[in-house]
Prior knowledge:
Helix content is 38%, strand content 23%. It is of the alpha/beta class.
Amino acid sequence: xxxxAYPQTRGRDLNHVAWLYDPLIxxxxxxxxxxxxQLTIERMGISAVDRILDVGCGTGTLTMRIGAQLSPPGxxxxxxxAPKMITIARRKALxxxxxxxxxxxxxxSLDFPDASFDLVVNSMFTHHIDTELKERSFREMRRVLTxxxxxxxxxxxxxxxxxxxxxxxxxxxxxxxxxxxxxLRGRLPTLMAEAGFIEIERVAHVYGLVSxxxxxxxxxxxxxxxxx
Length: 228
């Protein structure tokens, strides 16, 4: 399929550097990428039979690690707007025997029915999209979650150290990436709340710059908490 036949977004995608993505992330994270992925898994609180969506999955490293935690009927699907990222992710999954599935998709218009997933995760994704797309994306993530379903967002947040501020705001201006400003000003929890999420909590903060937020789909959450 031609790339222009896939869903299109005005958000930044990394299609042009997909071939370099994995080694580049390892370098930019100073070798901490594996630990960061593990911390993400720990904060997700996965059940083996969960239905999970990974939004902005890149080359699928996190998605496949999630898949290793699951048993039927549990499933995980990773989506990304960059077709070349998805091609690499599928190749990696095939070679490793991963159960993870991948599809080209855009966060602001998810191609899944309402209440399709128990858990939605997005990792280092929201700083690539502008304010309006963040708003639309969080609404879509809530739509595809079951009532009371869980969201985990791991991304750049308001810096808490000088080094974090230098890295965050330096990236904003050196890369001409205005999309970073919502994150750097600490607006992610507000945007989640405006989309209808509740019980929003920052559960971890690392490197003086990156936070992990959990939240619940407000629709039906009280009933789900009361079950059992």
